[in-house]
Amino acid sequence: MALPSRSFLCLRHGATDWNRQGRFQGRTDNLLNTDGIAQARAAASRLAGVPVGVIVASPLRRAVQTAEIVGAALSLPVAIDAGIIECDFGSLEGQSIRDTMRKHALTALEQLVSILPADGEPWAAVSARALGCIATLQNRHQGAEILFVCHDAVMQAIAQVLCGSFFENRYGTPFRFAREGDGWTVHEIGQFGQM
C-alpha cells in the first residue's frame, strides 16, 4: 500500500439532509443543506491562515460544493479525484445507521466496518485507494500543502491505517494528518489556521 510521504490536510464535506437523518450516504450524490453550506464557510475561515497550495475534492457534489466554497475564499481552483470518493456502502445506502447498529448489536460506530455488505466496497480498499491518491498527488505537487476535501469513512480509514485508530470527525472542521518521526497523528486545525 502506498503511503503519504509528508503531512497533509483533510476536510469532511458539510452536512446534507441524509447526514442529518443519520443515513448511510456513501456514493449517493446529495447536495449540501443550509447547515452544510455554513460549515463549508466556517472551514474556509479556519483555513485562512494555512498556506494551502492545492485543493483536491472527491467527485461527489457535497465534497465539490464544500471545496469550491473553500477554494473561492482561498483563491484556489479545485481539482477532482475519485481516489478520495466515499465508501460504497452497497445495500446499506440510504438505510438508518442507528437501526443498522441496533440490528447487529453494535455499540460503536467503528464497529460498522465489520458488517459492511458484500455488494459494497471492502473496508481495506477504501484506505488503500485513498492513501494511494494522497501519495500520488504529493509526488505530483512537491512541497505544496494539499487539502483533501472528502468524507468521514475515507478519513476514518486513513486514520486507522496511519494513526491506528478512528478519531472524532466533524463537518466543517479541517484536520492535519501530521508525520511525526515514524508515526502519524491527526490534529484539528483551529480558528485562523492555528493548531
Please tell me about this protein's structure.
This protein is α/β, with parallel strands linked by helices and about 200 residues long. A six-stranded mixed β-sheet has the order 3-2-4-1-5-6, with helices on both faces. The mean pLDDT is about 95. It has helices at about 15-20, 35-45, 60-75, 95-105, 125-140, 150-165; strands spanning about 10, 50-55, 80, 145-150, 175-180, 185-190. The chain starts with 7 loop residues before the first strand and ends in a 7-residue tail after the last strand. β2, α3 and β3 (about 80) form a beta-alpha-beta unit. About 35% of the residues lie in helices and about 15% in strands.
Compact description:
The protein has 6 helices and 6 strands; from the N terminus they run E-H-H-E-H-E-H-H-E-H-E-E. With about 200 residues, it is of the alpha/beta class.
